[in-house]
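Input structure tokens:
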């Protein structure tokens, strides 16, 4: 199974997966409407422009490239926006994916890799979140991703469509080549915002809350390098195909760092003492989100290779020389 359609392959995580697929001998084809993605991120891989809702275009691309499996990255990802504009999220993150899945079944393509999220778990009830943790999302973004996970269970049962759902914790860092990296408009993620403050592109970094029940009062998150995530996608794709079964994994390092700790590390790595402003909490942020990656380690042999310092260093390399 070598011909992989990467939907949303011009985006942050998708572009890193495409680069790794190619390096490992696969034939990735990117399908992207470029509403958020960057054509420069696709590099030397075929880019087919199109919408997920366009069945005719999807069918054409499936046939032209003899697609055998689909990886999906084309989702809206901002929690705050999802609360204000849920309709947009349910249309793009659920209806369009359902359209894609219908189209796959019509064309007898039965392997799907889905970008899910730690946000499907909601408020953690255990210190580290494993695959058996209850899934009770607390925002529309998390709801959309959980809905697709449910749709995928039903599609396996009814049509034999096998899927991998990968629940990412905090995807971060950039490819060491400096050719691709994180670029969202607007940017809402902590590491790029911190590094833009270091680079003088922002006046300060605003920390959302220092009254959480954590050691220093700021939120704790589990940061995982985008190339470690990319590796997990390929390992999971191969296991799904070999065993012909659907799989679910939580992808994080298993270690949590607070926002304040991360900012201090960024100051040390960049050598720049940028301004930090403390503000009120952001709605929808759990105090602590840390993965239990034991299942991915045991079943995929996956262990993250980048620590937080390397994540910040690669993101800083990208920030200083960003191409898009
Ligand atoms: N955060 C912050 N200031 C910002 C952006 C994020 O303090 O400008 C905090 C946010 O409240 C959360 C952590 O940084 O505790 C990580 O947020 P991010 O949006 O990067 O990822 P999330 O955990 O929401 O997926």
């Amino acid at each position: 199974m070598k011909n992989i359609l990467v939907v949303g392959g011009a985006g942050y995580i998708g572009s890193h997966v495409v680069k790794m697929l190619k390096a490992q001998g696969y034939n990735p084809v990117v399908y992207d409407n470029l509403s958020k993605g960057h054509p420069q991120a696709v590099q030397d891989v075929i880019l087919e422009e199109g919408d997920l809702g366009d069945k005719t275009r999807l069918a054409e691309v499936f046939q032209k490239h003899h697609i055998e499996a689909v990886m999906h990255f084309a989702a809206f990802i901002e929690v705050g926006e999802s609360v204000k504009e849920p309709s947009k999220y349910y249309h793009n993150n659920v209806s369009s994916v359902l359209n894609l899945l219908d189209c796959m079944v019509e064309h007898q393509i039965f392997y799907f890799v889905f970008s899910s999220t730690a946000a499907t778990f909601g408020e953690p009830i255990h210190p580290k979140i494993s695959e058996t943790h209850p899934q009770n999302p607390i925002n529309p973004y998390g709801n959309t991703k959980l809905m697709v996970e449910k749709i995928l269970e039903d599609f396996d049962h009814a049509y034999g469509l096998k899927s991998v759902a990968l629940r990412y914790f905090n995807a971060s860092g950039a490819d060491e080549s400096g050719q691709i990296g994180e670029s969202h408009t607007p940017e809402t993620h902590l590491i790029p915002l911190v590094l833009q403050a270091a680079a003088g592109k922002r006046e300060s970094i605003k920390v959302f809350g220092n009254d959480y029940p954590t050691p220093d009062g700021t939120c704790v998150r589990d940061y995982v390098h985008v190339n470690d995530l990319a590796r997990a996608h390929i390992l999971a794709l191969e296991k799904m195909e070999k065993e012909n079964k659907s799989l679910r994994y939580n992808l994080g390092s298993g270690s949590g760092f607070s926002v304040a700790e991360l900012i201090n590390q960024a100051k040390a790595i960049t050598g720049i003492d940028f301004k930090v402003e403390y503000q009120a909490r952001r709605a929808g942020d759990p105090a602590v989100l840390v993965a239990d990656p034991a299942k991915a380690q045991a079943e995929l042999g996956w262990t993250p290779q980048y620590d937080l310092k390397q994540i910040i260093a690669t993101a800083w390399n990208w920030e200083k020389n960003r191409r898009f």
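The mean pLDDT is 97. The chain is about 40% helix and 20% strand.
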